[in-house]
Amino acid sequence: MSDNEHLVHALRAAAVRWDDEIAAFGARHALGGTDVRALIALLDLERAGESATPGVLAGELGLSSAACTALVDRLAAAGLVGRAPDPADRRRVRLTVTDRARTLGEGFFRAFLGPIRAAAAALSPAEAQVVARFLGSTNPP
């Protein structure tokens, strides 16, 4: 065992806390785990200025086309996602995040990520590089 085994345990504890927080958020808003992951993916795509389509979302989540259709149906019924024709190709559907979804996401992530953002901001550039390298090595592409 390495002298840095404590890092493995700290990362595991952070992952468990993350899962617990996401599950609690989902339970409060009647969303399953995949629903929450989809909401996160859609908000991330929107923030990056990228188009969200059912195919893109299915790829992000590793879902079949049929499973993604059912997921989008649930999110639309919950008032979290809208569908609109793609202006560039009217045969394709674009997914849009609703204001309600943005409000839910912002409230959750502001409270949950606030302390994480503060801890990250306190790191020196060299420390941030080490943390980024470590975290990146635990989640290869």
UniProtKB/TrEMBL annotation:
Matches recorded under Gene3D superfamilies: Winged helix-like DNA-binding domain superfamily/Winged helix DNA-binding domain
Highest taxon of the lineage: Bacteria
Name of the protein this chain belongs to: MarR family transcriptional regulator
Entry-linked SMART domains: HTH_MARR
InterPro entries, per the entry: HTH_MarR-typ, MarR/SlyA-like, WH-like_DNA-bd_sf, WH_DNA-bd_sf
GO biological process: response to stress
Domain HTH marR-type: 4-140
